[in-house]
Write a structure and sequence with these properties.
alpha/beta, Rossmann fold, 8-stranded mixed β-sheet, 4-stranded antiparallel β-sheet, 10 helices, 12 strands, binds iron/sulfur cluster
């Protein structure tokens, strides 16, 4: 792989919470517990897992929307965690986020023209008539009429609002889009349209994507490589085609089983996922997946498996592959 556009290594983010009454105790939630991956130039890299696995925290920490406790985040040659002042502002232009809920990310009192032209002014790209003209072009690029510039967010459907959110992200000419569940709030038919738009933009603009989703089917369609997260850690990583053809980690296997597959025979051979995801405040010892794993062995209950390179760009953390 050529030099990555985004390099994340050893990322850790823990949160503390007070729990209990009348004598509350402070507990530590290990939301992200040592996550490493690279996003290559122009690729769509997927981060998948169940709700609460830490994938959205990774996305936000990569953009410095929250501060990680430890780890490295590099965008090209820039240390994202060390960036300050003008350097951080320049980074914010190159790294943009597309949010899950487009409505809450758009100011309901501002016309679309203001929403799209303000970031251009903030980053010194253009102002006034030129910015308005550019905003109209952006609307056309995301499949909306330029006349929408004078309307308010509530006048649009959910899918149209997500297109507006994408247009706003594009207004500053980013190089990497971090998309956090960008279609999960939309109807299935609208999901497909927005995904086609994102892929079209990726190809036309050469954009790189960090694509966060709980939906393996969506990641399978949109991404070329993926990492599967479970309880704050990556358990498997590799090219999407190979991971779907032959998942290595038992958790990836059950996730694949739970996602829509065109091959019913394939799904019938696979085990069903059992039990609830444990709390990140109190992860089980050993492999965090052991209480749900159909292949659990004694070592799994005491020792966390190391992340092994399996060749072909594939890695897995599971004692099934110990030598
Ligand atoms: Fe299952 Fe053990 Fe592998 Fe964990 S390490 S996924 S419990 S086989």
């Amino acid at each position: 792989m050529s030099a990555p556009v985004l390099h994340v290594a050893g990322l850790i983010r823990h949160f503390t919470q007070k729990k209990g009454f009348p004598n509350p105790v402070t507990i530590t939630v290990r939301a992200v517990d040592g996550v490493s991956f690279d996003v290559a130039e122009g690729e769509a890299f997927g981060l998948v897992g169940e709700s609460g696995c830490g994938k959205s925290t990774v996305a936000r920490a990569a953009l410095r929307l929250i501060e990680p406790d430890q780890g490295t985040v590099r965008f090209r040659d820039t240390d994202v965690r060390a960036a300050r002042g003008p350097g951080l502002k320049a980074l914010r232009r190159k790294l943009q986020m597309v949010f899950q809920d487009p409505y809450s990310s758009l100011n309901p009192r501002r016309r679309i023209a203001a929403t799209l032209t303000e970031p251009m002014a903030v980053h010194g790209i253009m102002r006034g008539r030129a910015a308005r003209e550019r905003a109209g072009q952006l609307l056309e690029e995301v499949g909306l009429p330029p006349a929408a510039l004078d309307r308010f967010p509530h006048e649009f459907s959910g899918g149209q609002r997500q297109r507006l959110g994408i247009a706003r992200a594009l207004s500053v000419e980013p190089e990497l889009l971090v998309a956090d569940e960008p279609v999960s709030a939309l109807d299935v038919s609208v999901q497909a349209q927005v995904l086609v738009l994102l892929r079209d933009l990726q190809q036309r603009r050469g954009l790189s994507f960090l694509f966060v989703s709980h939906d393996l089917a969506v990641v399978r369609w949109f991404c070329s490589r993926l990492a599967v997260m479970y309880l704050g850690r990556i358990v498997e990583q590799g090219p999407v085609v190979e991971v779907f053809r032959e998942p290595l980690h038992p958790y990836t296997r059950v996730l694949r089983d739970a996602s829509p597959s065109p091959d019913p025979g394939l799904r019938a051979q696979l085990p069903r996922i059992e039990g609830e995801i444990p709390s990140a405040a109190n992860p089980p010892p050993g492999c965090h997946f052991h209480a749900r794993c159909p292949h659990v062995m004694p070592i799994c209950r005491t020792q966390y498996p190391s992340f092994r390179d399996m060749g072909g760009g594939r890695q897995v953390a599971c004692h099934l592959y110990d030598n």
